[in-house]
Amino acid sequence: MRYISLLLVVMVGSIGCRNRPQPLTIFHTNDIHGHFTAEVVSWRDDSVKVGGMAALSDDLDSLRHVYPKSLYLDAGDLMTGNPICRIAYRGVEGGALLEMLHRCGVSAIALGNHELDQGADHLRRFVRQAPFPILCANIRDAESDSLLADSARIFRVGNVRVGVIGLMMDQLAGSVAKASMIPFHVDSVVEAAQNQINELDPKTDVIILLTHQGVDEDSLLATRVHGADVIVGGHSHTRLESPLRVNGIVIVQAGAYGKNLGVLDLTVAGDSVQECRGSLIELAERTPHMDSPVRQLADSLDAVIQEIYGEVIGRLAAPWKPSYYETSNVGNWITDRLRERYQADVAFVNAGGIRAGLEAGPVTLLDVQQMLPFMNSIVTLEARGADLQRTALEQSRAQGLRRHGALEMSGMTVSFELAGVDDSVSVGDVRIGGQPIDMSRRYRVVTIDYVAQGHEDRYLGFTPQDVESTGDLISDVIAEEIRSVKQPIRADDVVRLRDLP
């Protein structure tokens, strides 16, 4: 009887603790994209650099003294954006990023779409190698139907039981190469989330959805599930300086490239969030530098990358400024070089593949790798004029209706007009080589595999036949082209996809 009484006392005490207000702090990052070192940023007037794993580690160490009951989560896209993602560490490319996050004390991360950039086999190694949980409740192996990663974990922070569920966007078209997705099946985000919430709810005091799908989709998800408390999100690179609250669910996101650390301070009681306060902390580099295991690893890897990629290979006379929906001077220069090099009539590159601009002045191999971080191969094909007319229409829709990123183009110019009333576009003049397009002629086209063999409907508007791979990576080719120019480079800034007034 005495043991039964003692058990009742313990049970009542446990319930009482959960009903009393308890503090919980969530530190969060997202979309680091390989940016493991501090960098000069445009919004600061001084020379202080911002971001990097060492600054993240320093600030987390300091903040944990202030917020001892805390959890650090990352919402995915750790990969792609820096050569560190191609350097093998403990048997997996990009493994050093996993190790640095581990040394920062991360509790779990979500899978981002760019974790799939190097293919299915790399992704499986990446998940296995991680020294912490990588969570994703809605990606399955197509053959075995087993989940690629753990769906969720429960963490105890003080007296608070925190359930964390990982979720990847279920609409991956345009975000992942088709070849990388063939071995996998993607379940509905809403269904996977609700199934996991139902399972975790009796065992937890707080449920966090750790998502990689963007703030708009997170807001929609909040209206379609019940029982979740917080969404820590990524993918859209949104700097939410204070949390959103949609359908009672707190939504946070911390921008991109490791420049900010999100801090979400919660008060939890009675199986719900009673109060929340959130902010972003700029990760400014401290001087003098604090020595730490993270900084030691980051500095050693940076030295390797600078030795390999630090060489100056050319100079720009004026800045290169990419644009997602419109043709740009950097896109013009890249496609012009591809068209000339491969003796094509037309060259295309998706604008979204140009991930960074460059300032006037010296250009290094590292600059090129960061500007063109994806391992896209150059391919050639033949297309009839009628096919390229469909490309002109699809690209007019992309720019005019903001449906998706446009194609940078060389050898081809397109003008279009918005109809206005019914959100349609009318293609005007289409020229190839300065001449009106010939619908029956066959033209030689050079582009990249992502455009021609991954998302041809989205970009070209037709399915090309007899695509031939050159075996060349676009980043390597453009580096060679920059190196071959002996004087400062001047890019053509003529608009090649033009909305008629």
Write the layout of secondary structure elements.
Elements lengths: L1 H18 L2 E8 L23 H14 L3 E5 L13 E2 L2 E2 L1 H9 L4 E3 L9 H10 L4 E2 L3 E3 L10 E6 L2 E9 L9 H4 L2 E3 L2 H12 L5 E7 L2 H10 L5 E3 L11 E3 L2 E4 L7 E10 L2 E11 L10 H17 L2 E5 L12 H13 L4 E5 L10 E4 H7 L5 E8 H16 L6 E4 L1 E7 L6 E8 L2 E2 L5 E7 H6 L1 H4 L8 E6 H11 L12 E3 L2
Parallel strand pairs: 1-2, 2-5, 5-6, 9-11, 11-12, 12-14, 18-25, 22-27
Antiparallel strand pairs: 1-15, 3-4, 7-10, 8-9, 13-14, 15-16, 17-19, 18-21, 20-25, 20-26, 22-23, 23-24
Overview of the molecule:
The chain is built from 14 helices and 27 strands. The chain is an alpha/beta fold and 501 residues long. It folds into two domains: 22-303, Purple Acid Phosphatase, chain A, domain 2; 311-499, 5'-Nucleotidase, C-terminal domain (5'-nucleotidase,  domain 2), CATH 3.90.780. Helix 4 (120-129) links the parallel strand 5 and strand 6 (134-135).
* Shape field: globular
Q: What are the low-pLDDT stretches, counting only 5+ consecutive residues below 50?
A: 6-14
CATH class of the largest domain: Alpha Beta
Taking all residues together, what is the mean pLDDT? 92
Derived from helix and strand composition plus strand pairing, the structural class reads alpha/beta
Give the helix proportion (percent range).
25-40%
Biggest sheet statistics: 6 strands, mixed
Strand content: 25-35%
| CATH arch. level architecture of the largest domain | 4-Layer Sandwich
- Count of discrete alpha- or pi-helical segments spanning 4 or more residues: 14
CA-to-CA gap between the ends? 87 Å
Biggest sheet, spatial arrangement of strands = 6-5-2-1-15-16
